[in-house]
Each structure stands twice: as structure tokens, then as C-alpha cells.
Amino acid sequence: MIAKLKGRVEEVFPTFIILDVNGVGYKVEGDFLNVLEGNDIEAYIFTYVREQDLRLFGFSRKSEFILFEKLLQISGVGPKAALALISNVGTDQILTAINSNEPKLLKTTGVGNKTAQRIIIEMKNKIDKLGIKVTKDTQINLDNINMLTEVEEALIDLGYNKNQIKNVLEKLNLENKTSVDLVKEALQLFNRSNE
Prior knowledge:
The chain has helices at residues 62-72, 79-89, 91-100, 113-123, 127-130, 142-157, 162-169, 179-194, and strands at residues 4-12, 16-21, 24-29, 40-50, 53-59. By secondary structure, the protein is an alpha+beta fold. It folds into 3 domains: 4-59, CATH 2.40.50.140; 62-130, DNA polymerase, domain 1; 142-194. Strand 1 and strand 2 form a beta hairpin. The longest helix has 16 residues, at 142-157. Belongs to the RuvA family.
């Protein structure tokens, strides 16, 4: 099984890249929005094999690779949902959701409330064995997550898409702000980017 690839990014598509490794082009699925054609990259690879299906999923971080593999072991979580969780929610928030028993933090494309609850129940006792921890530097404050969820829902209601929202949420300053303040700040950032 392929576990790691290092090569040049030949082409970038919305949901995958073609990675040239010594003249062989591999189709590697994943979240590669920030990858540029012509760049050399190294990716952890999960080789997904099912009957007539052979797919490669790539991750820049070991923690994403490990978590993706564990998520696939949960009933009802396929590669599309596992990838959505890692791309849209992120490893830190997934771990925080499991540790704090907050299924709403796991909601994303293809992951509803029942699946989120199943993930928490099945992963609760496995987290420590994964060797992945939310570090002090990246520890997510649960209040901030709840506030960002409210902001995201408000922006979706206003017609913005998830990719636009994700980029803006990363730029928000959360200190001493309410969710209303953050929605206003997000709208200002959207207006600036359209000027």
C-alpha cells in the first residue's frame, strides 16, 4: 500500500491533484486549495480499496492521515464524509468535539447529527491511543467554536458559500466579541474583498 508520496504538482482540480512522482502521475484526492501547480509537495497517502475502487487520499499532516483512517472505521462514515470532516471541521475541532461530547461541532457536508453522535461514541475511548492531541497552542476554546458556528450559520443564511465563509472566519479577531460583532466584521471583510 502507498503511504507517502513526494513529487511535483502537475495539475490542480477542485477535489484532487495530479502528483508527478518520477514521471508517474498519481490522482490524489483531498483538500488542496492552497497548492499551486509546479510546487513540490510531500503527502501522507491513504490507499482506499473497495471491490473495483482504488483511490488515493492525500494529507499534508500526519494527524489528518491518522484521523481519516480511524473515521473510515466508523459505520456510516465513507471517504467523502471523512474528508469533509478533516477539510471543513479540522482535526483540532474534531478532537475537541469528541472530548467535550459536542456533536454539533462535527456537522458538515455528509455528516448529520446521528453520524456525529456515532463518531463521538465510537471514538471517545480511542482518542488517547491515536497519539494526536490538541496542543496548548491550538487548543480550541469551546465558547469560540459555538460563537463561530453561530456566525457561520448567519452567513450561510445571508447567501455566502462555505469556502468563502471558511476564509473569512480564519481572519476574525475573537477577543471580547459577540457573535453579532463577528458577523459585522465578516461582512466588512467580504465587502473589502469585493472592492
